[in-house]
């Protein structure tokens, strides 16, 4: 893809070096440990109570939900997401979705998310609740990574053990250590074989004996994770006997920079920052000059064959299940997926920056197109399959390219046309929208300590949709509690916060306790579960529309 006019790229999507692991991501420049990684921050989309809203359990495969392979626990995304609903997971689309996991070569660490809605709230913007506020998930190199090296994150130890039935025995960190010890023992055995054999001078013969013994070991019918950590080919094993498995794996986990430039797909031509478009939240911006025709970004697509699974429902009367007669909205994820009015199919891109690309119908500077057929990335025969085919497909084999329609300057916002239906729906939404003048944002409260909080007596309604987090002295040990502020006094110690408060704290078992002299900095506010902007009735939801001329006829099932 690169030629002399193509701007220099440093982060690539390319086939993983791990056999059968699909695609992975690679750096084309050396990254010393601690370096922030290219491509900018990740965001995370909260996905709430999926099983409840689908009256099933994903384990039972009651509904086709490939996202379960890509989601992070809300705890790893951050406290705000953890408290948003009873059961929330986060979809984080860049470093949070693209890298593979190799437990002995974890070289990328990601932070948790901050929360901020770019100042857009139900009080001032029809865009509030229509995009995610979880952002700033930053990745850095955890080890030195060589130019061409594949980037690996940790999926956590349980990830592979809970997927053994279809992923097989994927070695963990301890298994590589056991493998390393085993290789040393075998190496010693091979040395002693040379010493003890009468044909020690027959190098060819001894070489063959070693290959045979090695093949017997790795092809043993008794499978185990430590066995899976051993190199399959004798040539690689022999290298591991010289330099250790770790270095051998590192050598294997590298593509040449030339390979990446020729076959890889650039991921860091865009990066996120606050959008220039009113009410849109964040957007994607060009990191460098991108001439007309440049593939600005490429994104694998997660398919959702039945878009109805994103509908959320109110509780039934017994509170145990959903009430199908009471739909209450759609998961926020819908706003990040592409669809078509004549199909139940949704395609959701995951790639650095692409989900941040906002809409412009009049003057878009990129368009989407299907990638050309390529076994490694995009299987165009899938465009001829009916929607039912996708119910039993659990890999991503379709990709969009975002192509520059004209020259794009460094720093310019990258914009795509979401389609006529999207624009009409947005205009209708803006027309019908009313500001909520009583809205109190917990996140604004947490940023600003400079005004006195109201007591319950002064205004009982003001904090009804938020709850505090009070801890005495240790923030981490706090629990979810609802506060009523009973009294406010000037801080006798005259600290920065200005006031101290007496609180009535109502805990989860409805116990009530009173706490005196709490300073502002000891309190942290969150929305009560299901009270965040994304759960508000009428918050904007609409998928982006795949242009009719590129939408496959085979998928038109409505
Ligand atoms: C795919 S996301 C784009 C990224 C999003 N702006 C963010 O901050 O995460 C689509 C959502 O962005 C917002 N958006 C995109 N383009 C917009 C526009 N032209 N006007 C208003 N909102 C827009 C809408 O909330 C839309 O549902």
From TrEMBL:
- What SUPFAM superfamilies does this protein map onto? SET domain (SSF82199)
Q: Which residues form the SET domain?
A: 255-419
Q: Could you identify this protein by its name?
A: SET domain-containing protein
A Pfam family it matches: SET
């Amino acid at each position: 893809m690169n030629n002399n006019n193509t701007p220099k790229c440093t982060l690539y999507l390319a086939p993983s070096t791990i056999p059968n692991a699909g695609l992975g991501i690679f750096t084309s420049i050396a990254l010393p440990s601690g370096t922030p990684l290219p491509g900018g921050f990740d965001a995370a989309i909260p996905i709430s109570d999926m099983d409840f809203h689908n009256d099933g359990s994903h384990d039972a495969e009651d509904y086709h939900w490939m996202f379960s392979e890509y989601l992070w626990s809300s705890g790893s995304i951050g406290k705000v997401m953890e408290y948003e609903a009873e059961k929330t997971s986060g979809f984080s689309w860049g470093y949070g979705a693209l890298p593979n996991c190799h437990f002995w070569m974890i070289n990328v660490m990601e932070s948790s998310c901050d929360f901020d809605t770019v100042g857009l709230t139900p009080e001032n913007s029809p865009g509030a609740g229509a995009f995610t506020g979880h952002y700033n998930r930053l990745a850095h190199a955890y080890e030195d990574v060589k130019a061409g090296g594949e980037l690996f994150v940790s999926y956590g130890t349980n990830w592979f053990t809970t997927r053994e039935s279809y992923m097989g025995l994927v070695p963990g960190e301890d298994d590589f250590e056991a493998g390393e010890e085993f290789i040393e023992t075998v190496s010693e055995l091979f040395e002693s074989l040379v010493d003890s054999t009468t044909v020690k001078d027959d190098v060819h013969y001894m070489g063959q004996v070693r290959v045979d013994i090695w093949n017997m070991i790795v092809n043993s019918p008794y499978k185990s994770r430590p066995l899976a950590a051993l190199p399959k080919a004798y040539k690689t094993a022999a290298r591991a006997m010289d330099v250790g498995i770790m270095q051998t794996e590192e050598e294997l986990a590298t593509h040449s920079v030339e390979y990446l430039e020729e076959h890889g797909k650039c991921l860091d031509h865009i990066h996120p920052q606050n959008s220039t478009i009113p009410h849109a939240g964040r957007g994607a911006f060009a990191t460098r000059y991108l001439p007309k025709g440049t593939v600005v970004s490429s994104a694998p697509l997660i398919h959702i064959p039945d878009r109805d699974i994103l509908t959320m429902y109110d509780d039934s009367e017994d509170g145990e299940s959903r009430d199908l007669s009471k739909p209450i909205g759609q998961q926020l994820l819908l706003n990040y997926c592409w669809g078509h009015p004549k199909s139940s199919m949704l395609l959701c891109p995951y790639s650095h920056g692409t989900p941040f690309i906002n809409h412009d119908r009049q003057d878009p500077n990129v368009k989407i197109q299907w990638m050309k057929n390529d076994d490694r990335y995009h299987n165009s025969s899938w465009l001829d399959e009916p929607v039912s085919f996708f119910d039993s497909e659990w890999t991503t084999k379709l990709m969009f390219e975002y192509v520059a329609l004209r020259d794009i300057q460094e720093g310019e916002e990258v914009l795509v046309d979401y389609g006529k239906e999207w624009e009409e729906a947005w205009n209708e939404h803006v027309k019908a929208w009313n500001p909520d003048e009583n809205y109190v944002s917990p996140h604004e409260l947490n940023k600003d300590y400079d005004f006195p909080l109201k007591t319950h007596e002064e205004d009982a309604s003001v904090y009804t949709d938020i709850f505090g987090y009070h801890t005495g002295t240790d923030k981490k040990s706090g629990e979810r509690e609802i506060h009523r502020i009973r009294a406010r006094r000037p801080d006798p110690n005259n600290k920065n916060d200005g006031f101290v408060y007496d609180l009535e704290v109502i805990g989860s078992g409805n116990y009530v306790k009173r706490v005196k002299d709490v300073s502002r900095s000891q309190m942290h506010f969150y929305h009560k579960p299901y009270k965040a902007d994304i759960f508000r009735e009428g918050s904007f939801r609409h998928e982006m529309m795949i242009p009719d001329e590129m939408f496959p006829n085979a998928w038109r099932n409505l």
